[in-house]
Amino acid sequence: MRLVIIGGGNMGGAILLALVKAEAVSPENILLIEPDKEKRDNLTKTINCVSQAEIDETIRGYDLLLIAVKPQAATPAMELLAQWILPHQLVISVMAGISLETMQSALIQTKLVRVMPNIPTLIAEGMSIFFASSEVDKVEREWVKTLFSACGKCLEAKDEDAIDAATAISGSGPGYLFY
C-alpha cells in the first residue's frame, strides 16, 4: 500500500515513525506533506521518505490519504485535497472533532475512516479506535487496523459516537498520567 501523510506535527510525525519502525509501510511508499520546512526536513532525514510542502496531483498515485492536521487547519487542507482526490482512495483522519459527515461534505468522498489515537501513540504504545463509513470494504478496514496496530492497539467502533466517548476516556487518562 502507498500512503500519503498530510501533516508532520506531533501526531502525524509519531504515526509516520511508528509505521516505518514496525515495517507496516516502507519509506519509499510514503509521501509526507508538511508545509513547515523544518518539520518536513527533520522527518525525511530520519525516515528517508519523499516529501513536499503542498497537496497537489502527486497524491493521485497513492492508495491511502491520512490527514493529521490540527482541527483549525482541517478546512483548508480538505479544500486542497478535494481538488485532487480520486474515488478509489481511502481517506483516514486523525483530526480531533472532525466528523465523517464534515469530511464527506468537504471532500465529496465516501471512503472515509475516522481514527482517534491517544498520546501513547507517540511511543507506539497507544490505543486507537476507528469508525469507517459503509463504503470502506473489509480489506481497507484491515489496512487501517494494520497501520494503527503499529502505533499500539487498534479497535473498530460500531458507530461514530463511540469515537468521542473513547477519546474522553483513553485520550485524557494517559495524558494525566504523563503529567
Write the layout of secondary structure elements.
Elements (H helix, E strand, L loop, with lengths): L2 E4 L3 H12 L8 E4 L3 H11 L2 E3 L11 E4 L6 H11 L5 E4 L6 H8 L4 E5 L9 E7 L5 H12 L2 E5 L4 H18 L1
Parallel strand pairs: 1-2, 1-4, 2-3, 4-5, 5-6, 7-8
Antiparallel strand pairs: 6-7
Question: What keywords describe this structure?
Answer:
single chain; 179 residues; alpha/beta; Rossmann fold; 8-stranded mixed β-sheet; 8 strands; globular
Describe this protein's structure.
The chain has 179 residues and is an alpha/beta fold. It has one domain: 3-Layer(aba) Sandwich (Rossmann fold). It is built from 6 helices and 8 strands. The protein has an 8-stranded mixed β-sheet with strand order 3-2-1-4-5-6-7-8, with helices on both faces. It is globular, with a radius of gyration of 15 Å. The termini are far apart.
Low-confidence stretches: 173-179
- What is the element string, with H for helices and E for strands? EHEHEEHEHEEHEH
Average residue pLDDT = 90
Strand order of the largest sheet: 3-2-1-4-5-6-7-8
CATH architecture call: 3-Layer(aba) Sandwich
Task: Using the alpha-carbon principal axes, give the shape.
Answer: globular
